[in-house]
Amino acid sequence: MPWKPAQFKGKKVWVEVEASGKPVVRQGRMPMRYSDSAGSKIYRAGVSGVLILDEPAVHMDAGVSADKAKKGSRGSGFGKAGTRTKEQAAAARVAASELVAGFHRNAVICFTDGACQGNPGPAGSGAVVKLPGGRVLERHLALGRATNNIGELKAIGLALDLLDEGEVSSDARVEILTDSKYVHGLLQLGWKGKANRDVIDGIKARLRDFTNVRIHWIAGHVGIPENERADELANRGVSESLRRR
User: Fold this and answer.
1) What is the pTM of this model?
2) Which of 157, 221, 226, 237 is catalytic?
């Protein structure tokens, strides 16, 4: 969804806008967020208190309504798969669906996931890539003994392998989805990781081959078929790793 830079009480914020650039106003209030990170809280600000800046609107990862986030909760507000409340699960599904629906129709969409039985333990990675023409590519990888973070990182590498297989051009729109905040932080937000440097540096180098690639965080197990498939593939990798022991 598009968001436009603005100021609210002296702080930089973003307000939701329509495709035309007109602010979204509901009952005299605008959806507003302080952060462009996935899962950040979305507040409702009074129209009179918001100064919209003369800057272009930008697409942002989905957030979560501050009204729905549990009081005192941390992180995305969506909780964890298996322990989410009904409200958290519904918010996570809506956020993920809106994110995917907002991608350009010609975008290549990559769904990635890592899995690990124990941490470290037998691990695997999975990736599903949807090409604009409807073709779907998928792959899994058995990693032997590894950490969950390695599984998530290697899943990004699998997606890049599939982009090569699908002969995706370097200037194509590429949207990569991960349910790992660790991976999203390292590869999209500029976090500095001390561990796994060889893997991280290798993936960053490959990502630079594409001029229009973005990595998004979404909550896991929210009912997106391709995301669930990536999880199945990652666990297939875990099974193969177990058989190798």
Assistant:
1) 0.72
2) 221
